[in-house]
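ingest -> validate -> predict -> emit
validate: passed (alphabet ok, no gaps, 98 aa)
predict: started
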Amino acid sequence: MIHYDFVWDRGKARRNRRKHRVSFEQGATVFRDPRAASLYDEKHSEAEERWVTLGISSNSGLLVVHHTFEEIDADHIRIRIISCRKATPAEIRRYGER
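emit:
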């Protein structure tokens, strides 16, 4: 079983919560969604590989989470959350069509 650790910058988390009304703690829960979809974010991956995950959070809201993956070992992955927000109507439709 793979273990996930979540990390983030506290200042960025506060700014994200004020701007989007979504906490990084809530964003971390989308990774429990068995239907969550992660896509490579080529546009923002110049300095590091970044990903975007769309999934249902523990409060049943559909969220978009921008993050990195770092494999620590075969059973341990660190996810650094960069931002998270509520999904747009178009993203909600795409999630429902999968």
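Residues 44 and 91 are 19 Å apart (CA to CA).
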